[in-house]
Amino acid sequence: MTACATETCAAPAALSGKAINTAMGPATGCTENGMEARDRAATHTAALTEMETKTATATESEGRITRRSGFTIAVDGSYAACLADAGDGCWYPERWTLDGPEPYTVPLPGNQPEEADTQPLPLPDGRVLIRRRVADHYDLALLYPTGPGTGELRIGSLHGEEVRLLPPPTTDSAYALTYAEGISTVWLVHGGFGLEKLAEIEGRCTGGVWLDREGRALALDRELDGRTKAVAVDLADGVISPLLQITDDSNDRLLLADPDSGLLLVRSDAPGTERLGWGVLGSRRPVRFPESLREEDTGDNQAVVITPLSVQPGQLLMPESCAVALRIDGPGGVTLALWRPDGGAPSPVPAPEGWLTGAVTWSPRGALRLPYATRQCPCGLANVEPAVPLGPPVPLGPPGVSEPVSVPTQPATEPKASSLSASPSASPPGRRTSHVLPLQQAPLAMQR
């Protein structure tokens, strides 16, 4: 178990191991001849040298920065999970606890090392759901610490050309997406009674974004007939509805969605080249493609790539005010930045040394919480206040008060999405009642 501070970690100059003195002092009371003494001295020196080597290796191993892959944070920010490698090339699952006084890690190694493509997923109860490829299928199991060892509860197996766990919802359930023979299938793999098939979608689906906090409305990017369009899947009855249809010939993918505000971050080639844009779920307003999110090619294959990471939660009915954490990959490396629809260019945010690139969660006050790991602090969580203060989450309104929802007019040729429309009476007081409807007729004129 490894722990460190939640603020910027005070890093000592270096780790130093105690050197073992192998110098032989003058012989006293020795009855051996010179050759025997020299042989014994050489043997003793060799033994001490071996001990020194082992000690130095152990110290170096303990201080080595561990490689990590697939770092995923639970929606509530309580736990995270990843694959870790201490430097010997053997991957093992690792759980991070982030909601305590200090963050700490718990290794969850099994009987044998994990493959590099093994996928871990943290659950709100502290267990880790893991997906492993075994021959021609994928095994699912729950891992949990049991004193010095790791407990494992097998769930079952899934078959397919592609099998992956979907991003964690806000509920205690977990879902998987499989693809085989032209059909994508959504499975409930934890929180029900065994493995349960929920929906089948024609075509190959990628992505996976939750549109609500009840774990019912799921958005997937469906590739069908040479085009990729985001669709909404109602997991309660398996109904599939169109979600993004900016133009008939465009490829429209959903990257992020915030259920509180309805803010959507999309990637589409509707403007003529692939661009980042934003829209509002259930709004009459079309998708916008701001200049501030334009990705540029600086030449010599050194393009700037912008990846939305996370939306500030709790901004009820205020999509334009939501802060969005961005990862910007450019010629100078990786930059963390914040951007808002009603703002200008993204504002850089100082990330701590050893930041686990792409891992972002939020504090209740709107500060970024960034997990990091360095030689001096192998498990840290930095609270980074934005240069421009962000507004705190808006409290829920009084009981019985509900914001009216504007529903865009759908073209007559579009399928209705009423199966995913939440009725006001079924929505929590003060929360947005979002109708999942296609976003069409986006203006191609660039803004900001």
Keywords:
single chain; about 450 residues; mainly beta; five-stranded antiparallel beta sheet; four-stranded antiparallel beta sheet; 1 helix; 27 strands; about 5% helix; disordered C terminus
Describe, in plain words, how this protein is organized in 3D:
This protein is mainly beta. It has a domain of 99 residues. The chain contains one helix and 27 strands. A five-stranded antiparallel sheet has the order 1-5-4-3-2, with no helix packed on it. Strands 6-7-8-9 form a four-stranded antiparallel sheet, with no helix packed on it. A hairpin with a 4-residue loop joins strand 16 and strand 17.
Helix and strand sequence? EHEEEEEEEEEEEEEEEEEEEEEEEEEE
Task: Kindly report the oligomeric state of this protein.
Answer: single chain
The share of residues in extended strands comes to 35-45%
**What portion of residues is helical?**
under 10%
Largest sheet: 5 strands, antiparallel
Number of helical segments with 4 or more residues: 1
Regions with little confidence, pLDDT below 50 for 5+ residues: 7-63, 392-437, 441-448
Which strand order does the major sheet show?
1-5-4-3-2
Q: Could you give the topology of this structure?
A:
Layout: E1 2-3, H1 34-63, E2 67-73, E3 79-85, E4 91-97, E5 104-107, E6 119-122, E7 128-134, E8 137-146, E9 149-158, E10 162-165, E11 174-180, E12 183-190, E13 196-202, E14 204-210, E15 217-224, E16 227-234, E17 239-242, E18 252-257, E19 263-268, E20 275-280, E21 305-311, E22 324-330, E23 333-339, E24 347-349, E25 361-362, E26 368-372, E27 380-384
Antiparallel strand pairs: 1-5, 2-3, 3-4, 4-5, 6-7, 7-8, 8-9, 10-11, 11-12, 12-13, 14-15, 15-16, 16-17, 18-19, 19-20, 21-22, 22-23, 23-24, 25-26, 26-27
